[in-house]
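Components:
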Amino acid sequence: MATRAAHVQANAELNGRVTGPRGGLRRLLGPDYRLGYLFVVPAAVLVLALVAYPFGYAIYLSMTRKYVGVPPVWVGLENYVKLTFDGFFQRAVANSFIFTFGSVAVKTVLGMAMALVLTSNIRFRSFFTGVLLIPWVAPTVVTALNFLWIFDYSLGVLNYLLVRVLHILPRGVGWLSEPGTAMASVIAVNIWRGFPFFGISFLAGMKGIPAELYEAAAVDGAGAVLRFRYVTLPGLRNIVIIVLLLSTIWTFNDFQIVYILTKGGPGGATQVLPVFTYEMAFGAQRLGEAVAVALYMLPALAFVIIVLARYMRRSRTA
Amino acid sequence: MDHRLRDLAERLDAGLIARREFLRKAAIITGGTAAGLGALRTMAGAQPKTKLRVWLFKSFVTNANDVLARHVEAWAKERKVDVETDWATFGDREPKFVASIEAGSPPDMAEMHILGPTRYKAALRDVSKLAGEIARAKGGMLPFAETATRLDGKYMAVPRYAMITVFFIRKDIMEAKGLKPPKVYDPDVVEFARKTQDPSKDLYGFGQTLNRSDDGDGFMENILWDYGGGSWDKEGKPALATSFREPNLKALQFAVDTIQKHKIQPPGVMGWTDVSNNEAYMAGKLVTTNNGASLYYAMVAKKHELAPKTLLVLTPGGPAGSFVSASCYNWAIFSKSKHPELCEDLIRWMEDEKRFTEYLQVSVGQAGPVYKGRVDNPYWKSDPNFEAIVQNILKSVPYGHPGPMTPAAVEVRAQHILTDMAGRVVSAGLSPEAALKEAHARIEEIYKIRRM
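Structure:
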């Protein structure tokens, strides 16, 4: 105790002797603060150059009228105001939310099912794990092009199976030509591509739950459903938060599947914000408005993510 | 003789040095000189060659792409220029151009689509002198090519060739039914399609998407003109739901009717992309379709069984006539290029008639004429199907017709306004009037923005 008091006193005296701004910095950041700067500088430069500058420039561009090859003209919030009242943009926003939440919801359920099946004692478990990862491993462009053929009315394998092989339908369905089926189709492809990520993440989480918890629950008389409800789900909560957040962001920004399958058609029925941004940038070549489209939903997306994260965290502490 | 050797020789003659010393010193002088010259030659060789970045357009006609690349390589070898060639395709050309211009590093020159000069005018060099020189040598430019490349009185690009859509007909089916090629869409194409199709066998009389695609947008633009309408009036002001409201409504109704009322199109046609009708036609599921020559090339190149059974005819029309818009491909030089004279030289080289004819002969009708002198090239008589290609090109009109080809007209096409209009009726159930009004509002907005 006496030693500690002496140490505190010595430190106080030392600190008392160091005066001026440098002394303040030393007190605040520690005696090695100069070396600390040296270590931080590369990371800070990288963040500024690769994140802060492009992001700041994007915000600036979104407040300009900018055409290709000519200098931008400052218009303030005009682009954002115009977008707010643009019917096509509004439809793209609605489509984006339908696409994102429709897809993420189903991916969560399928991913959980996949993880549960793969944790049970089935034969060839490793083989099935590998097979189920194929959609996630395959390049999105390849996936989308394959589904473009699968969904084709005349030449596609889906209609062929449903009409000629299984005789479920009297005639084929224009999967990509009707607004409802077109949206369902692009969601289905996104689900097919994305659910293995959910499954493998949940599987990893399940492996980390102690077996004793399941044993204790079983001893207490809990069946499979109750064990899932009171042991598995609470144990996976952190994984679920991360997977949902990541997938929401990825799905909201998914461009390739919709662009390759429908280009936002028919009649804008599957127009989502990334495709709208692309068309504004490279079709209309109005770069300022294109960036405004891309940034418009950023606060809303951030809000959704924060609410979701806080909700999940609260559930954990409850 | 080197003065040092002469000095040595004089000193030897005067007996001032021994023969052995003379030989030793002479060897050093000549060897050193030779080594020095060799080093100089190496240094001269190591000087960097002039480098030119050239972007070419990669079409579906792969044989023509090969010839194009070969001609550029031959020029580079002849002029001792280091050429870095890159390709832009239908799908990636716009992002590539936008990114390179905005990054301040465009290529020196590029082979561009019809929209290129209008879109990238601010980054391009005035090539009026060269365009005039080439056009004069080839009997003058065809009007649509001039409209596409001449902006505000200056040529921003040199026309190269024209791609155009024509009407593809299954000749074997037509002849079996005792029919003749249709002249107008309504009623000719409708009746032709009804008589030839057999949906129970998955064979449809007409395949023309109204979905967002070059094919769909092109058809919608043409059909408005065919009915005497269009998106723009003669002054280049929006006219979709104003001065051209009536003909445009009739045209839109007809386009929709081909799917909903006449049922001459395959049920999934609203989900088609640019390649879908090509695939369906080659799979024997369509009797007629509108497409560029690339479909014919694909069949001829693969010796497809339908190639000899295919007839290409002029695009059908409507009450006001038959209208099509040719896509004029062209050469443009970027103003940032440090070697514009080399770029001009390369363009002259590529447009040399001998080389162009070599390119033309492997293009299977895709490289249509943009100069009057090329209309009479014997190649166009080598296949009866080429007649429709040439005639369609000769009567083609530019985007924005009957007004000028403005950035707003280009943007309306690029934003799929007309196919969205059709899609809103076919897929979303909007009335043609409402869809026309909605599309007009979008065109007005584009017009307003582009005038700022």
